[in-house]
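User: Predict the full complex structure for these chains.
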Amino acid sequence: MINTTDTNTRPSSGILTMMGLNRRQRTIITTAVIGILLLSIILGGLLLSNERITTNLEARNQAPSFSHPFGTDWLGRDMLTRTIKGLTLSIFVGLIAAAISTIIALVLGIAAATMGNRVDTIVTWLVDLFMSIPHLVALILIAVALGGGMRGVVIGVALTHWPSLTRVVRGEVLQLRSTEYVQISRRMGKSRWWIAAQHIVPHLIPQMLVGLVLLFSHAILHEASITFLGFGLSPHQPAIGIILSESMRYLSVGMWWLAFFPGLSLLIIVRLFDILGDNLRKLMDPYNAHS
Amino acid sequence: MLLKGENISFGYNKGSLVLDNVSIAIAPGEVVGLLGPSGCGKTTLGRILAGYQLPEKGVVTIDDKPLPTVGFNPVQLIFQHPERAVNPRWQMRKTLNEGWHPSDDLLEELGIEKQWLTRWPNELSGGELQRFCVARALGPETQFLIADEMTTMLDAITQAQIWQVVMRIVRERNIGMVVISHEAHLINRLCSRVVDFKNINSPDLFLV
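Assistant: Here is the predicted structure of the two-chain assembly.
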Protein backbone atom coordinates (compact mmCIF):
# COMPACT_ATOMS: atom_id res chain seq x y z
CA MET A 1 0.00 0.00 0.00
CA ILE A 2 1.56 3.24 -1.10
CA ASN A 3 0.40 6.39 0.58
CA THR A 4 1.16 9.43 -1.51
CA THR A 5 0.94 11.87 1.39
CA ASP A 6 3.83 10.22 3.18
CA THR A 7 6.55 12.40 1.79
CA ASN A 8 4.66 15.56 2.74
CA THR A 9 3.91 14.62 6.30
CA ARG A 10 7.28 13.26 7.16
CA PRO A 11 10.13 15.69 6.72
CA SER A 12 12.93 13.20 7.32
CA SER A 13 11.55 10.29 5.31
CA GLY A 14 14.05 10.89 2.51
CA ILE A 15 17.07 10.24 4.70
CA LEU A 16 15.34 7.43 6.57
CA THR A 17 14.39 5.74 3.30
CA MET A 18 18.00 5.82 2.25
CA MET A 19 18.93 4.10 5.49
CA GLY A 20 16.83 1.16 4.29
CA LEU A 21 14.03 1.41 6.82
CA ASN A 22 10.48 0.39 5.99
CA ARG A 23 7.47 2.67 6.22
CA ARG A 24 6.48 1.60 9.72
CA GLN A 25 10.00 2.07 11.10
CA ARG A 26 10.22 5.51 9.50
CA THR A 27 6.89 6.50 11.01
CA ILE A 28 7.94 5.32 14.45
CA ILE A 29 11.23 7.23 14.26
CA THR A 30 9.55 10.42 13.05
CA THR A 31 6.93 10.15 15.78
CA ALA A 32 9.59 9.64 18.42
CA VAL A 33 11.64 12.61 17.18
CA ILE A 34 8.59 14.88 17.22
CA GLY A 35 7.62 13.63 20.66
CA ILE A 36 11.10 14.34 22.04
CA LEU A 37 11.12 17.79 20.42
CA LEU A 38 7.78 18.71 21.97
CA LEU A 39 8.81 17.30 25.35
CA SER A 40 12.05 19.28 25.31
CA ILE A 41 10.10 22.48 24.61
CA ILE A 42 7.87 21.79 27.61
CA LEU A 43 10.86 20.93 29.79
CA GLY A 44 12.69 24.02 28.52
CA GLY A 45 9.73 26.20 29.40
CA LEU A 46 9.56 24.77 32.88
CA LEU A 47 13.30 24.82 33.60
CA LEU A 48 14.36 28.14 32.03
CA SER A 49 14.83 30.74 34.73
CA ASN A 50 12.96 34.00 34.68
CA GLU A 51 16.26 35.90 34.69
CA ARG A 52 16.31 36.42 30.95
CA ILE A 53 12.77 37.79 30.83
CA THR A 54 13.23 40.42 33.51
CA THR A 55 13.40 43.98 32.33
CA ASN A 56 16.88 44.83 31.08
CA LEU A 57 16.78 48.27 29.53
CA GLU A 58 20.41 48.12 28.36
CA ALA A 59 19.56 45.30 25.97
CA ARG A 60 16.26 46.52 24.62
CA ASN A 61 15.08 46.44 21.01
CA GLN A 62 17.95 44.27 19.83
CA ALA A 63 17.68 42.49 16.52
CA PRO A 64 18.32 38.73 16.52
CA SER A 65 21.94 37.87 17.38
CA PHE A 66 23.89 34.98 18.88
CA SER A 67 23.19 35.97 22.46
CA HIS A 68 19.51 36.64 21.66
CA PRO A 69 18.51 34.39 18.72
CA PHE A 70 14.96 35.74 18.63
CA GLY A 71 15.99 39.34 19.51
CA THR A 72 14.78 41.33 22.52
CA ASP A 73 11.70 43.47 23.07
CA TRP A 74 11.24 47.08 24.21
CA LEU A 75 11.95 46.10 27.82
CA GLY A 76 15.08 44.13 26.94
CA ARG A 77 13.48 40.72 27.57
CA ASP A 78 14.91 37.79 25.61
CA MET A 79 12.28 36.77 23.05
CA LEU A 80 13.50 33.14 22.77
CA THR A 81 12.85 32.59 26.46
CA ARG A 82 9.50 34.32 26.27
CA THR A 83 8.51 32.26 23.25
CA ILE A 84 9.43 28.94 24.84
CA LYS A 85 7.65 29.83 28.06
CA GLY A 86 4.65 30.99 26.05
CA LEU A 87 4.57 27.76 24.03
CA THR A 88 4.77 25.69 27.21
CA LEU A 89 1.83 27.54 28.69
CA SER A 90 -0.09 27.11 25.43
CA ILE A 91 0.66 23.39 25.36
CA PHE A 92 -0.62 22.98 28.91
CA VAL A 93 -3.78 24.95 28.22
CA GLY A 94 -4.27 22.95 25.03
CA LEU A 95 -3.66 19.63 26.77
CA ILE A 96 -6.18 20.27 29.56
CA ALA A 97 -8.78 21.67 27.17
CA ALA A 98 -8.32 18.90 24.60
CA ALA A 99 -8.49 16.21 27.30
CA ILE A 100 -11.75 17.62 28.70
CA SER A 101 -13.14 17.91 25.16
CA THR A 102 -12.22 14.31 24.39
CA ILE A 103 -13.92 13.05 27.56
CA ILE A 104 -17.07 15.02 26.73
CA ALA A 105 -17.01 13.57 23.21
CA LEU A 106 -16.55 10.02 24.51
CA VAL A 107 -19.41 10.25 27.02
CA LEU A 108 -21.85 11.97 24.66
CA GLY A 109 -20.91 9.78 21.69
CA ILE A 110 -21.39 6.51 23.56
CA ALA A 111 -24.59 7.81 25.19
CA ALA A 112 -26.02 8.79 21.80
CA ALA A 113 -25.22 5.41 20.30
CA THR A 114 -26.45 3.20 23.14
CA MET A 115 -29.11 4.99 25.18
CA GLY A 116 -31.97 5.12 22.72
CA ASN A 117 -33.55 7.48 20.27
CA ARG A 118 -34.33 10.38 22.57
CA VAL A 119 -30.76 10.73 23.88
CA ASP A 120 -29.47 10.33 20.33
CA THR A 121 -31.72 13.15 19.07
CA ILE A 122 -30.63 15.50 21.86
CA VAL A 123 -26.91 14.80 21.40
CA THR A 124 -27.12 15.11 17.61
CA TRP A 125 -28.98 18.39 17.99
CA LEU A 126 -26.33 19.71 20.40
CA VAL A 127 -23.58 18.70 17.99
CA ASP A 128 -25.33 20.48 15.11
CA LEU A 129 -25.93 23.53 17.27
CA PHE A 130 -22.30 23.84 18.33
CA MET A 131 -20.99 23.15 14.85
CA SER A 132 -23.20 25.86 13.35
CA ILE A 133 -21.64 28.56 15.56
CA PRO A 134 -18.11 29.62 14.56
CA HIS A 135 -15.67 28.23 17.13
CA LEU A 136 -14.12 31.57 17.90
CA VAL A 137 -17.45 33.31 18.57
CA ALA A 138 -18.64 30.64 20.98
CA LEU A 139 -15.20 30.58 22.55
CA ILE A 140 -15.16 34.35 23.16
CA LEU A 141 -18.70 34.27 24.58
CA ILE A 142 -17.90 31.47 27.02
CA ALA A 143 -14.51 32.89 28.01
CA VAL A 144 -15.95 36.37 28.64
CA ALA A 145 -18.95 34.95 30.53
CA LEU A 146 -16.54 33.10 32.81
CA GLY A 147 -14.50 36.26 33.44
CA GLY A 148 -11.57 35.47 31.14
CA GLY A 149 -8.20 34.36 32.45
CA MET A 150 -6.77 30.86 32.39
CA ARG A 151 -10.01 29.26 33.67
CA GLY A 152 -12.15 31.00 31.06
CA VAL A 153 -9.86 29.97 28.21
CA VAL A 154 -9.58 26.34 29.26
CA ILE A 155 -13.32 25.91 29.79
CA GLY A 156 -14.11 27.87 26.65
CA VAL A 157 -11.81 25.78 24.47
CA ALA A 158 -12.97 22.53 26.09
CA LEU A 159 -16.66 23.33 25.57
CA THR A 160 -16.29 24.26 21.91
CA HIS A 161 -14.13 21.45 20.55
CA TRP A 162 -16.06 18.28 21.36
CA PRO A 163 -18.72 18.17 18.59
CA SER A 164 -16.76 16.73 15.67
CA LEU A 165 -15.19 14.01 17.80
CA THR A 166 -18.60 13.20 19.34
CA ARG A 167 -19.90 12.53 15.85
CA VAL A 168 -17.01 10.22 15.12
CA VAL A 169 -17.47 8.29 18.38
CA ARG A 170 -21.24 7.99 17.91
CA GLY A 171 -20.85 6.72 14.35
CA GLU A 172 -18.12 4.32 15.36
CA VAL A 173 -20.11 2.77 18.22
CA LEU A 174 -23.28 2.49 16.10
CA GLN A 175 -21.32 0.78 13.37
CA LEU A 176 -19.54 -1.57 15.79
CA ARG A 177 -22.78 -2.60 17.47
CA SER A 178 -24.14 -3.82 14.15
CA THR A 179 -21.03 -5.71 13.01
CA GLU A 180 -21.34 -9.45 12.66
CA TYR A 181 -18.54 -10.19 15.10
CA VAL A 182 -20.21 -8.23 17.89
CA GLN A 183 -23.53 -9.97 17.21
CA ILE A 184 -21.76 -13.34 17.20
CA SER A 185 -20.14 -12.40 20.49
CA ARG A 186 -23.61 -11.95 22.04
CA ARG A 187 -24.59 -15.44 20.81
CA MET A 188 -21.39 -16.79 22.32
CA GLY A 189 -22.87 -15.76 25.64
CA LYS A 190 -20.76 -12.67 26.24
CA SER A 191 -22.20 -9.91 28.41
CA ARG A 192 -22.68 -6.30 27.28
CA TRP A 193 -19.82 -5.19 29.50
CA TRP A 194 -17.50 -7.84 28.15
CA ILE A 195 -18.33 -6.78 24.60
CA ALA A 196 -17.89 -3.11 25.45
CA ALA A 197 -14.49 -3.76 27.02
CA GLN A 198 -13.18 -6.30 24.49
CA HIS A 199 -14.78 -5.28 21.20
CA ILE A 200 -15.84 -1.62 21.38
CA VAL A 201 -13.23 0.16 23.53
CA PRO A 202 -10.17 -1.20 21.67
CA HIS A 203 -11.67 0.31 18.51
CA LEU A 204 -12.29 3.65 20.20
CA ILE A 205 -8.93 4.12 21.95
CA PRO A 206 -6.97 4.90 18.76
CA GLN A 207 -9.74 7.25 17.63
CA MET A 208 -9.63 8.97 21.00
CA LEU A 209 -5.87 9.31 21.04
CA VAL A 210 -5.70 10.66 17.52
CA GLY A 211 -8.71 12.90 18.19
CA LEU A 212 -6.99 14.23 21.31
CA VAL A 213 -3.78 15.08 19.48
CA LEU A 214 -5.61 16.65 16.54
CA LEU A 215 -7.85 18.66 18.90
CA PHE A 216 -4.72 19.80 20.61
CA SER A 217 -3.45 21.87 17.71
CA HIS A 218 -6.89 23.48 17.37
CA ALA A 219 -6.98 24.23 21.07
CA ILE A 220 -3.54 25.88 20.99
CA LEU A 221 -4.41 28.04 17.99
CA HIS A 222 -7.72 29.12 19.50
CA GLU A 223 -6.12 29.84 22.84
CA ALA A 224 -3.58 32.07 21.08
CA SER A 225 -6.33 33.73 19.02
CA ILE A 226 -8.57 34.76 21.87
CA THR A 227 -5.59 35.84 23.95
CA PHE A 228 -4.44 37.91 20.99
CA LEU A 229 -7.90 39.48 20.80
CA GLY A 230 -7.70 40.34 24.49
CA PHE A 231 -10.35 37.97 25.86
CA GLY A 232 -8.00 35.29 27.08
CA LEU A 233 -5.03 35.00 29.38
CA SER A 234 -3.94 38.02 31.37
CA PRO A 235 -1.03 40.14 30.05
CA HIS A 236 1.22 39.04 32.95
CA GLN A 237 1.41 35.52 31.60
CA PRO A 238 4.00 34.79 28.91
CA ALA A 239 1.47 33.45 26.39
CA ILE A 240 2.07 33.45 22.64
CA GLY A 241 -1.16 35.37 22.08
CA ILE A 242 0.04 38.11 24.45
CA ILE A 243 3.44 38.30 22.75
CA LEU A 244 1.84 38.60 19.32
CA SER A 245 -0.69 41.26 20.30
CA GLU A 246 1.97 43.35 22.08
CA SER A 247 4.33 43.12 19.17
CA MET A 248 1.70 44.52 16.81
CA ARG A 249 2.42 47.99 18.18
CA TYR A 250 6.11 47.70 17.35
CA LEU A 251 5.84 46.24 13.89
CA SER A 252 5.52 49.67 12.23
CA VAL A 253 8.86 50.77 13.67
CA GLY A 254 10.58 47.84 11.99
CA MET A 255 10.93 45.40 14.92
CA TRP A 256 9.79 42.46 12.81
CA TRP A 257 11.40 39.81 15.00
CA LEU A 258 8.95 40.43 17.85
CA ALA A 259 6.10 38.86 15.89
CA PHE A 260 7.95 36.75 13.34
CA PHE A 261 9.76 34.21 15.53
CA PRO A 262 6.99 33.60 18.10
CA GLY A 263 4.44 33.32 15.27
CA LEU A 264 6.63 30.91 13.32
CA SER A 265 7.26 28.82 16.43
CA LEU A 266 3.53 28.56 17.08
CA LEU A 267 2.97 27.47 13.50
CA ILE A 268 5.69 24.83 13.74
CA ILE A 269 4.38 23.46 17.03
CA VAL A 270 0.84 23.18 15.70
CA ARG A 271 2.11 21.46 12.55
CA LEU A 272 4.21 19.06 14.63
CA PHE A 273 1.17 18.06 16.66
CA ASP A 274 -0.74 17.53 13.44
CA ILE A 275 1.97 15.24 12.07
CA LEU A 276 2.11 13.44 15.40
CA GLY A 277 -1.65 12.79 15.23
CA ASP A 278 -1.45 11.55 11.65
CA ASN A 279 1.47 9.26 12.46
CA LEU A 280 -0.29 7.82 15.51
CA ARG A 281 -3.31 7.07 13.35
CA LYS A 282 -1.14 5.30 10.78
CA LEU A 283 0.57 3.24 13.46
CA MET A 284 -2.69 2.17 15.08
CA ASP A 285 -4.77 1.42 12.03
CA PRO A 286 -4.96 -2.37 11.86
CA TYR A 287 -4.72 -2.35 8.07
CA ASN A 288 -1.39 -0.53 8.32
CA ALA A 289 -0.16 -1.50 11.74
CA HIS A 290 1.46 -4.80 10.88
CA SER A 291 2.20 -4.55 7.21
CA MET B 1 -35.72 -31.80 21.04
CA LEU B 2 -36.71 -29.77 18.00
CA LEU B 3 -35.74 -26.35 16.74
CA LYS B 4 -39.03 -24.88 15.63
CA GLY B 5 -40.03 -21.68 13.92
CA GLU B 6 -43.78 -21.32 14.15
CA ASN B 7 -45.93 -19.03 12.00
CA ILE B 8 -43.08 -16.63 11.35
CA SER B 9 -43.72 -13.41 9.45
CA PHE B 10 -41.09 -10.82 8.65
CA GLY B 11 -40.74 -7.90 6.27
CA TYR B 12 -38.08 -5.23 5.75
CA ASN B 13 -40.53 -2.74 4.26
CA LYS B 14 -44.00 -1.94 5.48
CA GLY B 15 -46.66 -3.81 3.57
CA SER B 16 -44.40 -6.37 1.92
CA LEU B 17 -43.47 -9.51 3.79
CA VAL B 18 -40.39 -11.53 2.94
CA LEU B 19 -41.62 -14.37 5.12
CA ASP B 20 -45.38 -14.78 5.48
CA ASN B 21 -46.56 -17.22 8.12
CA VAL B 22 -43.72 -19.70 7.64
CA SER B 23 -43.28 -22.74 9.87
CA ILE B 24 -40.26 -24.99 9.97
CA ALA B 25 -38.90 -27.63 12.30
CA ILE B 26 -35.47 -29.23 12.45
CA ALA B 27 -34.70 -32.41 14.37
CA PRO B 28 -31.27 -33.27 15.86
CA GLY B 29 -29.05 -35.07 13.39
CA GLU B 30 -31.10 -33.86 10.47
CA VAL B 31 -29.60 -31.84 7.63
CA VAL B 32 -32.15 -29.50 6.08
CA GLY B 33 -31.41 -27.48 2.98
CA LEU B 34 -32.98 -24.10 2.28
CA LEU B 35 -32.88 -23.56 -1.45
CA GLY B 36 -33.93 -20.53 -3.43
CA PRO B 37 -32.81 -17.55 -5.50
CA SER B 38 -31.26 -14.38 -4.03
CA GLY B 39 -33.57 -12.20 -2.00
CA CYS B 40 -36.21 -14.84 -1.35
CA GLY B 41 -35.79 -14.82 2.44
CA LYS B 42 -33.44 -17.76 3.09
CA THR B 43 -30.93 -15.70 5.05
CA THR B 44 -33.67 -13.85 6.93
CA LEU B 45 -35.17 -17.15 8.08
CA GLY B 46 -31.70 -18.33 9.11
CA ARG B 47 -31.09 -15.17 11.13
CA ILE B 48 -34.48 -15.46 12.83
CA LEU B 49 -33.91 -19.13 13.69
CA ALA B 50 -30.54 -18.27 15.26
CA GLY B 51 -32.00 -15.35 17.22
CA TYR B 52 -30.16 -12.61 15.30
CA GLN B 53 -33.45 -11.06 14.33
CA LEU B 54 -36.85 -11.02 15.99
CA PRO B 55 -39.77 -12.01 13.76
CA GLU B 56 -42.69 -9.62 13.46
CA LYS B 57 -45.04 -12.48 14.21
CA GLY B 58 -44.43 -16.01 15.34
CA VAL B 59 -41.96 -17.64 17.72
CA VAL B 60 -38.75 -19.63 17.56
CA THR B 61 -38.53 -22.39 20.15
CA ILE B 62 -35.98 -25.02 21.03
CA ASP B 63 -37.25 -27.96 23.03
CA ASP B 64 -40.56 -26.02 23.27
CA LYS B 65 -38.83 -23.19 25.13
CA PRO B 66 -38.05 -19.79 23.56
CA LEU B 67 -34.45 -19.25 22.41
CA PRO B 68 -32.21 -18.04 25.26
CA THR B 69 -31.18 -14.38 24.95
CA VAL B 70 -28.26 -14.64 27.38
CA GLY B 71 -25.54 -17.25 27.60
CA PHE B 72 -24.21 -19.47 24.83
CA ASN B 73 -26.85 -19.84 22.15
CA PRO B 74 -27.47 -23.51 21.24
CA VAL B 75 -28.29 -22.35 17.72
CA GLN B 76 -25.12 -21.06 16.06
CA LEU B 77 -25.05 -19.24 12.74
CA ILE B 78 -22.06 -19.27 10.40
CA PHE B 79 -21.99 -16.28 8.10
CA GLN B 80 -21.20 -16.01 4.42
CA HIS B 81 -18.33 -13.50 4.80
CA PRO B 82 -15.78 -14.72 7.35
CA GLU B 83 -13.79 -11.49 7.13
CA ARG B 84 -16.79 -9.63 8.57
CA ALA B 85 -17.38 -12.21 11.27
CA VAL B 86 -14.02 -11.74 13.02
CA ASN B 87 -12.83 -8.67 14.89
CA PRO B 88 -10.03 -7.12 12.77
CA ARG B 89 -8.26 -5.93 15.94
CA TRP B 90 -8.04 -9.37 17.50
CA GLN B 91 -5.43 -11.99 16.89
CA MET B 92 -6.96 -15.24 15.64
CA ARG B 93 -6.33 -17.07 18.91
CA LYS B 94 -8.67 -14.74 20.76
CA THR B 95 -11.37 -15.03 18.09
CA LEU B 96 -11.10 -18.81 18.12
CA ASN B 97 -11.45 -19.05 21.90
CA GLU B 98 -14.24 -16.53 22.26
CA GLY B 99 -16.98 -19.04 23.04
CA TRP B 100 -15.04 -22.15 24.00
CA HIS B 101 -11.60 -23.73 23.62
CA PRO B 102 -11.54 -25.99 20.56
CA SER B 103 -9.27 -29.02 20.95
CA ASP B 104 -6.08 -29.45 18.96
CA ASP B 105 -7.68 -32.42 17.18
CA LEU B 106 -10.54 -30.29 15.89
CA LEU B 107 -8.13 -27.61 14.70
CA GLU B 108 -6.05 -30.19 12.88
CA GLU B 109 -9.13 -31.73 11.33
CA LEU B 110 -10.27 -28.34 10.05
CA GLY B 111 -6.81 -27.68 8.67
CA ILE B 112 -6.08 -24.76 11.02
CA GLU B 113 -2.32 -24.43 11.38
CA LYS B 114 -0.80 -23.51 14.75
CA GLN B 115 1.05 -20.53 13.31
CA TRP B 116 -2.20 -18.94 12.15
CA LEU B 117 -3.24 -18.44 15.78
CA THR B 118 -0.90 -15.48 16.23
CA ARG B 119 -1.86 -13.85 12.93
CA TRP B 120 -4.24 -10.95 12.37
CA PRO B 121 -7.39 -11.49 10.31
CA ASN B 122 -6.13 -9.41 7.39
CA GLU B 123 -3.16 -11.74 7.06
CA LEU B 124 -5.33 -14.80 6.38
CA SER B 125 -7.40 -15.75 3.36
CA GLY B 126 -11.18 -16.15 3.33
CA GLY B 127 -10.97 -19.91 3.42
CA GLU B 128 -8.58 -19.87 6.35
CA LEU B 129 -10.81 -17.44 8.25
CA GLN B 130 -13.93 -19.50 7.59
CA ARG B 131 -12.25 -22.54 9.17
CA PHE B 132 -11.85 -20.47 12.34
CA CYS B 133 -15.51 -19.42 12.21
CA VAL B 134 -16.57 -23.06 11.88
CA ALA B 135 -14.40 -24.13 14.81
CA ARG B 136 -15.72 -21.24 16.90
CA ALA B 137 -19.35 -22.21 16.24
CA LEU B 138 -18.91 -25.90 17.14
CA GLY B 139 -18.90 -25.40 20.92
CA PRO B 140 -20.05 -28.21 23.20
CA GLU B 141 -23.40 -26.51 23.81
CA THR B 142 -24.15 -26.14 20.09
CA GLN B 143 -27.19 -28.22 19.21
CA PHE B 144 -28.13 -26.66 15.91
CA LEU B 145 -25.90 -25.19 13.26
CA ILE B 146 -27.09 -22.84 10.53
CA ALA B 147 -24.68 -22.42 7.63
CA ASP B 148 -25.67 -19.37 5.63
CA GLU B 149 -23.85 -19.69 2.29
CA MET B 150 -20.95 -20.90 4.38
CA THR B 151 -18.66 -21.86 1.52
CA THR B 152 -20.04 -19.75 -1.33
CA MET B 153 -17.02 -17.45 -1.32
CA LEU B 154 -14.48 -20.28 -1.30
CA ASP B 155 -12.81 -22.38 -3.97
CA ALA B 156 -14.03 -25.90 -4.72
CA ILE B 157 -11.27 -27.74 -2.85
CA THR B 158 -11.66 -25.71 0.34
CA GLN B 159 -15.45 -26.11 0.09
CA ALA B 160 -15.15 -29.88 -0.08
CA GLN B 161 -12.66 -30.01 2.82
CA ILE B 162 -14.78 -27.87 5.13
CA TRP B 163 -18.03 -29.66 4.33
CA GLN B 164 -16.49 -33.08 4.85
CA VAL B 165 -15.33 -32.19 8.37
CA VAL B 166 -18.51 -30.34 9.29
CA MET B 167 -20.77 -33.16 8.12
CA ARG B 168 -18.75 -35.72 10.05
CA ILE B 169 -18.90 -33.70 13.28
CA VAL B 170 -22.61 -32.99 12.83
CA ARG B 171 -23.28 -36.71 12.42
CA GLU B 172 -21.05 -37.65 15.36
CA ARG B 173 -22.60 -35.18 17.78
CA ASN B 174 -26.14 -35.46 16.45
CA ILE B 175 -26.33 -31.76 15.65
CA GLY B 176 -29.28 -30.48 13.64
CA MET B 177 -28.12 -28.54 10.62
CA VAL B 178 -29.62 -26.02 8.23
CA VAL B 179 -27.76 -25.45 4.97
CA ILE B 180 -28.71 -22.22 3.21
CA SER B 181 -27.59 -21.98 -0.38
CA HIS B 182 -28.70 -21.15 -3.88
CA GLU B 183 -26.55 -24.01 -5.15
CA ALA B 184 -28.93 -26.90 -5.84
CA HIS B 185 -26.13 -29.44 -6.35
CA LEU B 186 -24.57 -28.73 -2.98
CA ILE B 187 -27.92 -28.93 -1.20
CA ASN B 188 -28.93 -32.17 -2.90
CA ARG B 189 -25.59 -33.73 -2.06
CA LEU B 190 -25.64 -32.78 1.65
CA CYS B 191 -29.22 -32.66 2.81
CA SER B 192 -31.71 -35.26 3.89
CA ARG B 193 -34.57 -32.84 3.31
CA VAL B 194 -34.82 -29.80 1.06
CA VAL B 195 -37.08 -26.81 1.53
CA ASP B 196 -37.59 -24.94 -1.70
CA PHE B 197 -38.43 -21.29 -1.14
CA LYS B 198 -40.73 -21.21 -4.13
CA ASN B 199 -43.48 -22.65 -1.96
CA ILE B 200 -42.23 -21.69 1.51
CA ASN B 201 -45.10 -19.34 2.22
CA SER B 202 -47.70 -22.05 2.67
CA PRO B 203 -48.06 -22.80 6.39
CA ASP B 204 -47.31 -26.06 8.16
CA LEU B 205 -45.84 -27.65 5.09
CA PHE B 206 -42.49 -28.42 6.60
CA LEU B 207 -43.26 -29.57 10.08
CA VAL B 208 -41.64 -32.91 10.72
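Chain A has a mean pLDDT of 82.
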